[in-house]
Design goal:
This protein has about 240 residues and is mainly alpha-helical. The chain has helices at about 1-15, 20-60, 70-105, 110-115, 120-155, 165-175, 175-200, 205-240. The chain is elongated, with a radius of gyration of 20 Å. About 40% of the residues are buried.
Length: about 240
């Protein structure tokens, strides 16, 4: 735990120090953001579609099928959009960071960087952390919109609702509190995803088998942290609303 806090503090401090390695940041933004776009779009679309099907069945008992868009929008923007997007990015990129840095560690490339006077945290960890913090909220916005559109497809062609009715309920149901909560969560998740992946990669030992263990540990720990952070952030917003 102490080693992780030291790594996180060093990575955050390097944000305000030179050099910034801008090329590495943009490269990681492309790898993390553009590379994760297909799985985020697919996950978001089918999450919204499944939610529309399930919610419509429950709302039908009360004669409120027209509220399907409202339920889909609120659940996606507040909870499922940020959480599912973060889990997909963690599965793809946290493991990738751990395996990449772990391979560099066991082949002594990181020791060579230190010998040449380069800070491995500033060169390897900080660019990944900044890139993840920038692209994950953007991916969440895309996942939310695609998920709401998936709910629209189900509402229109399966539930026989008017498209204008669906989109009007979506628009009227969302408040600034929902949007703020939905964008703050992925921003916080991004630090867990990037720092956990880099942490397990930098502490890799035991050759190629150690790289495999580090990759598995990174994905598991990042996924668990996402759910823990979701609870605490939701608890904070609920208390603020009720205060």
């Amino acid at each position: 735990m102490q080693e992780f806090y030291v790594l996180a503090g060093s990575a955050l401090r390097n944000v305000f120090r030179t050099p910034h390695y801008s090329d590495d940041i943009f490269l990681q933004m492309d790898l993390i953001g553009v590379g994760s776009l297909p799985i985020v779009v697919l996950t978001g679309f089918f999450s919204g579609a499944v939610m529309a099907l399930q919610m419509a069945r429950a709302l039908q008992q009360y004669g409120q099928v027209g509220k399907t868009g409202q339920v889909v929008a609120i659940k996606l923007v507040r909870e499922l959009g940020p959480a599912l997007t973060a889990l997909m990015v963690a599965g793809r990129n946290s493991s990738g960071m751990a395996s990449e840095l772990g391979s560099m560690k066991v082949t002594e490339q990181i020791d060579a960087m230190r010998a040449l006077g380069t800070d491995p945290i500033q060169k390897l960890v900080t660019p990944r952390m900044i890139a993840t913090a920038v692209v994950l909220p953007m991916l969440t916005i895309i996942a939310d919109f695609v998920g709401i559109f998936g709910g629209f497809i189900i509402a229109t062609y399966v539930l026989n609702l008017e498209g204008s009715q669906y989109w009007s309920t979506v628009w009227q149901s969302l408040e600034w509190n929902d949007v703020t909560q939905g964008l703050l969560k992925p921003f916080v998740f991004s630090f867990a995803i990037s720092l956990v992946g880099c942490y397990y990669g930098l502490r890799t030992t035991g050759g190629t088998q150690g790289v495999g263990r580090a990759t598995t540990q990174a994905v598991v720990m990042a996924s668990v942290l996402i759910f823990i952070l979701t609870f605490f952030i939701t608890k904070i917003f609920v208390n603020l609303i009720n205060a």
